[in-house]
Amino acid sequence: MGAELPLFPVQASTMAGRVDALYAFLITVSVFFGLLIAVTLVSFAIRYRRRSRDERPQPIEGSVALEVAWSAIPLGIVMVIFLWGADLFFAMARVPPAPMEVYVVGKRWMWKTQHLGGQREINELHVPVGVPVKLTMTSEDVIHSFFVPAFRMKKDVVPGRYATAWFQATRAGTYHLFCAEYCGTKHSGMIGSVTVMEPAAFQAWLAGGATGTSLAAAGEKLFQDLACITCHRSDSEGRGPRLEGVFGHPVTLASGERVVADEAYVRESIVNPTAKVVAGFQPVMPTYQGLVNEEGLMQLVAYVKSLGGAATAGPGAALASPAPAAASPAPPSRPKGQGR
Ligand code: CUA
């Protein structure tokens, strides 16, 4: 629905049709009641107009049935809208298992994207068709909003925290990418494109952009350059906790609280180390706020992730692994899409 209407962008993701269906329902209900009220208002104004100076209106008796009807019917309609909207909201919020991961940083006035294989883009994003893509996003400065109309996907990126969004493209092509949050003089120029490719073409693109350094390897280099390694040693003799096998697992803090070591936790531990100190360790780590930019932080997160923890293998992970440029000319088999 809406696919042929030039009013709407093409539907290029698994969510697009569902979003449009809810939108169409909202419009239909609104137009129906808008017309009903307008027509009734005008016709009643004419029909029950005062016809003479002496005319006295009849007193109105209350009607319980009428009161119940005009309370229950709207309640039913808004509950349908609520449940439908909530169902769609959760579907859009829950990332499917084993997505391909992409890191996005918004910065006045550009979008910077990084793939796990180390490929980096500016104001562009290349993804394969039929594979769920998870975006881990933040901003270097002010609030921006990552908006791809063809995917019916829009997510604010806020400085200092990670936002997660996902989409699964359903047709190859090039689609608009906008910043949908006013962010300064060149907000309107903070635009780009998302290119959806057939998996084989995407694999070739990945190989072409391969730098030989995966995101995790770039993070490992930063980890050494910043001397993180002097405290976070793998032999558990360091002043900081070991990072092997931590990612995705619960961590017990000095406060006794348990938190899951996810992307946001790792990021916070780098820029604000005393916020959540691991049990058994002293709050001696200095902050790295300002020493590493958001892209660097994402590389460090990718490195910590690569040290093990939650399984990341899947069709997406395989696609995003550093493509050996010359070693394997044969493109890998087409990955199975995650069915709806
Ligand atoms: Cu970034 Cu508007």
Describe this structure in words.
- This protein has 340 residues and is of the alpha+beta class.
- Among the domains are: 100-208, Cupredoxins -  blue copper proteins (Immunoglobulin-like, Sandwich); 215-320, Cytochrome Bc1 Complex, Chain D, domain 2 (Orthogonal Bundle).
- Helix content is 33%, strand content 19%.
- It has helices at residues 16-47, 64-93, 199-209, 215-225, 263-271, 294-306, 315-320, and strands at residues 100-107, 110-115, 120-122, 124-128, 132-139, 144-148, 153-157, 163-168, 173-179, 192-197, 250-252, 258-260.
- The strands form three sheets. A five-stranded mixed β-sheet has the order 3-2-1-5-8.
- A hairpin with a 2-residue loop joins strand 1 and strand 2.
- It is elongated, with a radius of gyration of 27 Å.
Which molecules are bound besides the chains? Answer: dinuclear copper ion
Enumerate how many helices there are, as a single number: 7
The CATH topology of one domain: Immunoglobulin-like
CATH architecture of one domain: Sandwich
CATH class of one domain: Mainly Beta
User: Rg, please?
Assistant: 27 Å
Global shape? elongated
Q: Major sheet: order of its strands?
A: 3-2-1-5-8
Number of E strands: 12
Biggest sheet character: 5 strands, mixed
* SSE pattern: HHEEEEEEEEEEHHEEHHH
Q: What's the mean pLDDT score?
A: 84
Helix content: 25-40%
Strand content: 15-25%
Structural class: alpha+beta
- The name of the CATH superfamily of one domain reads Cupredoxins -  blue copper proteins
CA-CA gap between termini? 18 Å
Low-confidence stretches: 311-340
